[in-house]
Amino acid sequence: MKKKINKIQEFIRNNCLDFTGSGSELNGNCVILAGYACYLGLDWTDLNILVQEDKDLIDNAKSKFLVELERVFDCANRRMYGLYWHYPEAKKTYKF
């Protein structure tokens, strides 16, 4: 589990994801994170634990962040957004 939290933290930092915004900015960054978490094989419980262990992330993000992340994670998981991360396009677009 420690390795996956490091991957999530690295991914957020390396791709400059910011969860302090609102509207489409917050939604877009949550979709990116949710898809990557699906790629790592995380379920919502694991991702929620990992995100809440990152005190800097939680302290800097508004309370809407976890609500939005849970909402989009469910959709991303059902629609298999994790598959995107296997394609070369993902590696060209994001650092992971």
Question: Can I get a quick summary?
Answer:
With 96 residues, the chain is mostly helical. The longest helix has 17 residues, at 23-39. Helix content is 70%, strand content 0%.
Structure description:
By secondary structure, the protein is mostly helical. It has one domain (22-93). Helices cover 70% and strands 0% of the residues. It is globular. It starts with a helix and ends with a helix.
Mean pLDDT: 89
Report the biggest beta sheet as strand number plus sense, adding barrel if it closes. Answer: none
Radius of gyration: 12 Å
How big a fraction of the residues is strand? under 5%
Strand/helix succession: HHHHHH
- Tell me the total number of β-strands: 0
Total domains, how many? 1
* CA-based shape: globular
How are the elements arranged and paired?
Blueprint: H1 2-14, H2 23-39, H3 44-53, H4 55-60, H5 64-78, H6 88-93
Helix pairs in contact: 1-3, 2-5
Keywords:
mainly alpha, 96 residues
